[in-house]
Amino acid sequence: MSHLLEIHDLEVKFALRTGDIIAIDGVDLTLDRGETLGLVGESGAGKSVTGFSIINLISKPGYISKGKILFNGDEISSYPDKKMREIRGNKISMIFQDPMMTLNPVFTIGTQMIETLLAHKNISKKEATKIALEKLKKVQIPSPGTRLNQYPHELSGGMRQRIIIAIALITDPQIIIADEPTTALDVTIQAEIMDLLQELCETDNMALILITHDLAVVSQVTEKIAVMYAGKIIESGLTHEVISNPKHPYTIGLINSIPGSTKPGEKLQQIPGMMPTLSEIPSGCAFNPRCTEKKEICETIIPEPKKTDSGSIVSCHMR
Amino acid sequence: MFAFIIRRTLQAIMVMLVISLIGFSIKSNIGDPVRDLVGERVTPAERAAIADKLGLNDPFFIQYTRFVKNVLHGDFGTSLIYRKPCLEVILKHAPATIELVLGAALIIILISLPLGVFSALKPKHLFSRFIMGFSTLGVSIPVFLTAIMFIYLFAVTLGWLPSYGRGETVDIFNNGYWNSGFLTIDGLKHLVLPCISLASIMLPLYIRLIRSEMMEVLETEYIKYAWAKGLSPKRIWLVHAFKNTLLPVVTVFGLQIGIMFAFTILTETVFQWQGMGFMFLEAIQRADISLLIAYLVVVASVFVLVNTLVDIFYGFINPTVRIAGTK
Ligand SMILES: Nc1ncnc2c1ncn2[C@@H]1O[C@H](COP(=O)(O)OP(=O)(O)O)[C@@H](O)[C@H]1O
Ligand SMILES: [Mg+2]
Known about the structure:
Chain A contains eleven helices and twelve strands.
């Protein structure tokens, strides 16, 4: 049987006035039913663009310039828009980063939940309302009945994100793509939301792609991990393998910079330098200017992904 | 919401007081009620006696209070040229102007909404470029030029439409006040050119406003999210984006309707349209101060009333305003 989701050699370009820039460069990913995958990397690495590519909703002027995306074996990356709409919000749901900006301010929560159902299922408004209520209970919202008639601004950020999770669940999708779902929230409720999401995916056997810059979250939540750097996946594998035995110097640097990864009293290690902007990616390995193990070859030849002894896949000349 | 309405109403009353104060100051400085009453042929002594009797030598504040009291009872004094109460004169001229503005507003709504939305959704389409070019041109042509061009083309050259007057009207309430041009073919024909001329002032502005508001809304996260939910383009554009676009546009529209009343002065002059604007010019030419002030106060009241209603309506369609009002 085919994988639930396969991304093959994905390339995404942005057509800027100054010429095309490559934002996603040869990304490969697979996801199976009920599996959880963490997509990590610094801001600007291309995580969100990868997520939006899956539902073919890259912001203009971006477009998929190469590669293909298969969902249950069907090549959805070549679907016309009308057919793609049957997947979006139905088979593959998305949770956005900032719950304060995601809901339309002039419609009630109920309207925004129900319209999603009505767009995909052939049911009455009454049935849809019932399902909406059910899902609100599922995301543990207090007094769900009154929420339906409330407007977004009447609810806190944490509540709104719960509602967005409820909307994501409403059509019983096979995949949820959560793009930094807790980044915009208070630290105190981040864990609650993350736990809820994880629990729901587990009970309903939904696959989850968790996009985050927070390696600590990924190590607690997901089974698989892919580390992105400047539009490429530089290391991927089972989360516990990669975390306990990182291979790529960038991954090692990321892990060392997690608070708690070093002994108490020891200074946190930061990776020196910054990720290059897409128009200034150095030749060879994109990470080479910041790398502690850099050799001559790193400046000229782009490293190919290869399998390591621990089972993870790494793109580095030194492994 | 209730508190919001109360607050908004109090504000409106404040504004009206200020306007009445200005109106009264003008009237008491340059008006000459004695002349209005008895004309020029009286001796200075008689004039002084009449002025005293009318209370014109009372302190300013007392006179002002009397003025406000009279105005509240609908008494704006007597018009010099019409020899009738000012309010009656204005009320008889108002329907013509209101119908003119109504027709123009209707034209603006019917044209600017579809054109603005279309050019926002398909900015690169040839038709959108044409609309934008046309509206740039439209913004820079003065209204009387448009009007004269229309008269020349449709009335003089083609002879399709009448070029002046209101045509056949129907007395709706059978009391001589509201003669409507909307109910007869001839009346409607007479409405076309003046309404288009008046609409043409604001139309380009609205197309641009709706377009830019809509384009801004289309870039928001919640619209991107609506796409991610798999909604149809029709729902996203015409329900989600449209409602958010409409909010600021409604406010501007409400404000501009008041300004349109001011522009009717030009349009009515060009088309010999017997409305308030026409009457206003006449009042200026013949120094009918009472009528001028009455016009000022009445138009300002309408302006303030419309603004207040628009704000309250806005409060109804925009949930965040409602909350701000109740807190
Ligand atoms: N709308 C856009 N226009 C131009 N470039 C974009 C746009 N969106 C994203 N990019 C480019 O793609 C890169 C990756 O962006 P993104 O996927 O949002 O990063 P992140 O990993 O933080 O989610 C950015 O560094 C930026 O250069
Ligand atoms: Mg992002």
